[in-house]
Design brief:
Layout lengths: L3 H14 L19 H17 L6 E7 L5 E6 L15 E2 L4 H14 L9 H4 L12 H5 L14 H7 L31 H15 L3 H10 L23 E2 L7 E2 L16 E2 L1 H12 L6 H7 L3 E2 L9 E4 L4 E5 L2 E10 L2 E7 L6 E6 L9 H19 L1
C-alpha cells in the first residue's frame, strides 16, 4: 500500500509529465452564435455550477469576462476544500503553460528592441547547447517548430523531479535531460508542443540582454502592463491570498498539491503565478501588441496547424507563443495551461478589448478525465461567447 507521501509524489510527477492526446472537436451549446450578454452570462453561470457539482469535477472555478470597461467575475465552488468561499479576483493561482505566453511577450519585446531577431539562432546566442540545435531560430522556438524534444517527457526527468520536488535544478539544466536526444524533425518542418522551447527562449533572452529572465519579465511585461500580482518564483511558495490546487480522484478525498513542487522545475515554460485579474489584464495587452512592435506582432500572428495543451475552444491554430481560437462566437487569441492542481485559459479579441481568463483549481486534461475536460472546454467556449456578446 502506498503511503500518503508516495501517493502525493505520484500525483505531482504524473501531472507534470502528463501528455495530452486529443482529437479537436468543437463543443458549443446549441444557442445562436451571437447570444445577448444576459443569455451568454446565464449559460456560463449554469455550466460553472454544473461542473463543480460533479464528483470528479474541480473544487472551484473562476471566470473573468471583460467586454466593457470593467471585468466581471463568474465563479462556482470553492477556493479551498472545506470552505464556501469561491475563487476571487485577487487569489493567486499557478497559470501553468500560460507562462509560455509571458515568455512570448518577453521574447518579442527583445526582438522589438533589436537585441534579438526572430531569425536569431541557438548557435549564435547559446553556443554551449547541442550542435544539433544550432540552426533552431527564436521564431521556431516560439511556434513549437524547433524539433527539440520535451525535457519533461524524458526518461530522466521524472526520477529527478521525484527525488527533489522542492529544490529545482539550475534553469539551464532543464535542457540537459534531452541534450543527447536527436531532434524530432527538421526545424521549421512541423509543429510539436515542447516545454523545452520556452526554456530556450528565456535563455536566449538572458544571453542577448545580459540580465536574468525574471528581470526582463518584470521590466518588459509586468511593469508596462501593470501586473502587480504576477511573479515567477523558483520555489514552491504561492503568494497569499491564493486558491488551493487539488488532485481530484474519487472516491479518494481531494488532495491539496498547491505547494507540492517548486516552480523552477518548469520555469519559463510553466512557473508563472498570477491572479485572475492580472491574467486577464495580461492577455488584453499581449494580444493587442502592447509589449512589441507592429512588424514583430505581424510575424507572431502568422498561424499554422497546431493546438495548445490542453486544447482551447473551437478550431485551434498556432502562432508564436499565442494560439488562435476560432469559435462560433468569434475569433480570440490566447493560451491554455495545466499543471498539478491547476488548469488555466486566457484569450482576447484581436484588439484586446474583449477578454476572458479561466482559473480552475484542479488539473483537468483529456487523457485522465475526458468527460470533465469536455465540459471544461465547453466552458472555455461559453466564456468566449460571453466576452464577445
Amino acid at each position: 500500500m502506498r503511503s500518503p507521501h508516495e501517493t502525493r509524489v505520484r500525483h505531482v510527477v504524473g501531472a507534470l509529465i502528463a501528455g495530452v492526446a486529443v482529437v479537436l472537436v468543437a463543443v458549443f451549446p446549441a444557442a445562436a452564435a451571437t447570444p445577448t450578454p444576459a443569455a451568454a452570462d446565464a449559460a456560463l453561470d449554469k455550466a460553472l455550477d454544473r461542473l463543480v457539482a460533479q464528483s470528479d469535477g474541480p473544487p472551484g472555478i473562476a471566470v473573468v469576462v471583460q467586454r466593457g470597461a470593467d471585468p466581471v467575475l463568474h465563479s462556482a465552488g470553492t477556493s479551498v476544500v472545506g470552505s464556501t468561499t469561491p475563487i476571487q479576483l485577487d487569489d493567486h493561482v499557478r497559470v501553468a503553460s500560460v507562462a509560455k505566453a509571458f515568455s512570448g511577450a518577453v521574447g518579442t519585446s527583445v526582438v522589438a528592441s533589436g537585441e534579438l531577431s526572430l531569425d536569431s539562432t541557438i548557435g549564435e546566442k547559446l553556443p554551449t547547447l547541442p550542435k544539433a540545435w544550432a540552426a533552431v531560430t527564436l521564431g521556431q522556438l516560439l511556434q513549437h517548430t524547433s524539433g527539440i524534444p520535451d525535457f519533461s517527457k524524458s526518461k530522466e526527468f521524472g526520477p529527478a523531479l521525484t527525488a527533489s520536488l522542492l529544490v529545482p535544478p539550475p534553469h539551464a539544466q532543464l535542457l540537459t535531460y534531452v541534450e543527447n536526444d536527436p531532434l524530432l524533425f527538421e526545424p521549421g518542418s512541423k509543429y510539436q508542443y515542447s516545454n523545452s522551447d520556452n526554456v530556450a527562449v528565456a535563455l536566449m533572452v538572458e544571453a542577448a540582454t545580459g540580465h536574468s529572465y525574471e528581470a526582463e519579465l518584470a521590466t518588459r511585461v509586468l511593469g508596462p502592463l501593470g501586473l502587480t500580482e504576477t511573479s515567477l518564483p523558483d520555489d514552491a511558495a504561492v503568494p497569499t491570498p491564493f486558491a488551493h490546487g487539488y488532485v481530484v480522484s474519487p472516491p479518494d478525498p481531494a488532495e491539496d498539491v498547491t505547494s507540492a513542487f517548486a516552480a523552477g522545475w518548469t520555469w519559463s515554460s510553466g512557473g508563472v503565478v498570477a491572479t485572475p485579474t492580472d491574467a486577464n489584464n495580461f492577455v488584453r495587452g499581449y494580444v493587442a501588441g502592447k509589449t512589441t512592435n507592429a512588424a514583430t506582432r505581424k510575424a507572431q500572428f502568422t498561424f499554422r496547424k497546431g493546438h495548445s495543451e490542453p486544447p482551447g475552444p473551437g478550431t485551434n491554430t498556432a502562432g508564436m507563443a499565442v494560439f488562435r481560437y476560432q469559435t462560433p462566437c468569434g475569433t480570440v487569441y490566447g493560451h491554455t495551461g495545466n499543471t498539478a492542481g491547476f488548469t488555466h485559459f486566457i484569450a482576447a479579441s484581436n484588439d484586446g478589448s474583449r477578454s476572458v481568463s479561466v482559473a480552475v483549481n484542479a488539473q483537468i486534461i483529456p487523457d485522465s478525465n475526458p468527460t470533465r475536460f469536455r465540459d471544461l472546454r465547453a466552458i472555455f467556449g461559453l466564456a468566449v461567447c460571453a466576452a464577445m456578446a
